[in-house]
User: Fold Enkurin domain-containing protein from Fasciolopsis buskii.
Amino acid sequence: MQERNALYQVTPEERKKLITGLKQRWQTLYRQYQTLSIMVDTQPKVNKKLLLENELNMLEHDIEFLERFDTILVGS
Assistant:
């Protein structure tokens, strides 16, 4: 019987793949962000801009977290 609160350590290869994937996603979203019009004069434009900014901020936070720590434990 496996322990309920077992922890799994992310391997360096998995960590590197996670960071690479997050950076690629950030670049994709940032390209979309750059194509937004400068004048956000309608609610859909405002919503799209805010959504992209929030996603970019979350990705930046996750990337910084993964780069800061060499050992990462995940609960199963």
About this structure: The mean pLDDT is 93. Residues 19 and 64 are 9 Å apart (CA to CA). The beta strands are 7-9, 73-75. The first helix runs from residue 12 to 34.
